[in-house]
């Protein structure tokens, strides 16, 4: 059962134009002061039954129905008690009102209610104030059915489910129809971070321009977030776009629109899901582009033959809500190494240190970088990706003849990030990670007869354990004051 919030609900009642239709015609029974219960919210609900073998859960503070359902057709006590059991496990009411029917007034049911510390209250026509609660419940349930019945008399269950769970401004529609508290308050849906989609959708698109062909091979993840929780909470799948349908959408849109870049295709998918399905609140698309390049033969690029070149991978993520979008570009798997112009000295020297100062060392890493755009309108994503790639090479390797000195991995990351923000105004923030791939000098001095006291040519690769250096640098936000 749901518990009421007196002041909040009374305020909602006073502003609701349809509440009078569901209010009892007789004055409400005065609230019985009950001792505080050891539950998250205490007990403030009541159950009423009528001769049509229905039960109605009533908020004692508002007289609104919070649950209506049918009792079993037969009066078998175990069926009735099994019907109440899951309700009571959620929150047992302090009182149940009945008109005296044998299905709820038997010794077995009395024992069941005693076990749950529920008081049984006899209600009849001679007690109109008490009976007002059942009247309020019946009015709400009847109104709900009438408003969702077609001209032919059939119950429009989809429409009624929408009215129960859809939002209308800041208030759940169900709050006005059946007196539910806001669903978010009851189920704590504010803590739900949910979404669903299809992962690892692989696609190869071939663009044929005469004898010259171009290819794009992607691996795509789709994820959608709905504007309601009815699939998650109630098992209502009526708004779910199947993940298989999402996969098919990737292929159909690629055929219809072609593929220019990972970012443009991800934006196309996001726009499609948001425009076609009004109940989709957010679309998120991840794209990994496979690194193919044309084969060069006899000094000439081949028309239709390609070489898989896993030197670096182009990635992107586009997350779009209605009225806005955010694109994140990236590159990953870029393994680089330079044999000099790198040092690491003057770091903390204490009892835990074993690493000596290294004034000249091999610097190797696998670079992962991602950057966020401050706009996606009119952006040439391919050009910006190529510019960032060039900056990575420049700040790691430097001039081909002299190189660039790196006093630490941290400083190299900073120089790259600063250059990206200085030179590319469309980038608002950039994240870079560079794990160490160590190469240690092999000690050959222990072999005096065949070895050497000095060695700067033979190294032992050691990638585990490894240091991991990461940083995020963004533009300073302007104060609104």
Description:
With 481 residues, the protein is α+β, with helices and mostly antiparallel strands. The protein folds into 3 domains: 6-189, 2-Layer Sandwich (Nucleotidyltransferase, domain 5); 192-321, Roll (Urate Oxidase); 323-481, Urate Oxidase. It contains 14 helices and 19 strands. The chain has helices spanning 6-15, 19-22, 77-91, 102-105, 107-115, 128-147, 157-165, 173-177, 183-187, 230-234, 243-257, 262-276, 381-397, 409-423, and strands at residues 45-49, 54-59, 65-70, 95-98, 119-122, 167-168, 171-172, 201-209, 212-226, 280-289, 292-297, 300-308, 313-321, 324-338, 363-373, 427-435, 438-441, 459-462, 468-474. The chain has an 8-stranded antiparallel sheet, with helices on one face. Strands 3-2-1-4-5 form a 5-stranded mixed sheet, with helices on both faces. Helix 13 runs antiparallel to helix 14 (409-423). It is elongated and about 105 Å long.
């Amino acid at each position: 059962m749901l518990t009421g919030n007196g002041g909040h609900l009374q305020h909602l009642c006073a502003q609701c134009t349809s509440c009078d239709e569901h209010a009892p015609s007789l004055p409400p029974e005065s609230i019985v002061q009950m001792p505080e219960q050891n539950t998250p919210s205490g007990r403030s609900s009541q159950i009423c039954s009528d001769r049509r073998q229905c039960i109605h859960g009533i908020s004692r503070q508002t007289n609104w129905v919070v649950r209506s359902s049918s009792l079993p057709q037969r009066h078998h006590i175990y069926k009735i008690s099994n019907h109440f059991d899951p309700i009571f496990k959620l929150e047992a009411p302090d009182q149940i009102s009945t008109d005296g029917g044998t299905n709820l007034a038997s010794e077995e049911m009395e024992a069941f209610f005693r076990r749950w510390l529920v008081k049984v209250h006899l209600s009849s026509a001679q007690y109109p104030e008490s009976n007002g609660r059942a009247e309020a419940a019946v009015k709400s349930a009847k109104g709900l059915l009438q408003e969702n019945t077609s001209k032919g008399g059939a119950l429009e269950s989809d429409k009624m489910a929408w009215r129960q769970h859809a939002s209308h401004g800041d208030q759940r529609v169900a709050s006005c129809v059946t007196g539910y508290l806001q669903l978010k308050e009851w189920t704590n849906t504010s803590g739900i971070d949910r979404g669903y989609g299809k992962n690892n959708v692989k696609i190869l698109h071939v663009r044929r321009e005469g004898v010259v062909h171009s290819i794009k091979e992607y691996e795509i993840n789709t994820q959608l977030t709905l504007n309601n929780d009815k699939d998650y909470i109630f098992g209502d799948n009526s708004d779910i776009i199947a993940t298989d349908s999402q996969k098919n959408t990737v292929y159909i849109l690629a055929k219809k629109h072609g593929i220019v870049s990972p970012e443009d295709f991800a934006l196309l998918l996001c726009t499609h899901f948001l425009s076609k399905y009004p109940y989709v609140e957010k679309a998120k698309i991840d794209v990994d582009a496979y690194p193919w390049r044309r084969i060069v033969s006899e000094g000439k690029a081949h028309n239709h033959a390609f070489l898989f070149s896993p030197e670096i991978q182009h990635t992107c993520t586009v997350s779009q809500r209605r009225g806005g979008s955010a694109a994140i570009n990236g590159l990953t798997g870029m393994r680089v190494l330079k044999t000099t112009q790198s040092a690491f000295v003057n770091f903390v020297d204490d009892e835990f240190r074993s690493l000596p100062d290294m004034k000249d060392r091999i610097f190797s890493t696998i670079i992962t970088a991602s950057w966020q755009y401050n706009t996606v309108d009119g952006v040439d994503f391919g050009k910006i990706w190529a510019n960032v790639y060039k900056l990575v090479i420049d700040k790691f390797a430097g001039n081909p003849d002299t190189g660039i000195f790196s006093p630490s991995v941290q400083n190299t990351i900073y120089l790259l990030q600063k250059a990206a923000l200085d030179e590319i105004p469309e980038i608002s923030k950039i994240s870079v990670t560079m794990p160490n791939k160590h190469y240690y000098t092999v000690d050959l001095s222990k072999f005096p007869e065949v070895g050497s006291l000095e060695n700067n040519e033979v190294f032992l690769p050691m990638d585990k354990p490894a240091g991991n250096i990461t940083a995020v640098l963004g533009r300073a936000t302007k104060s609104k004051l």
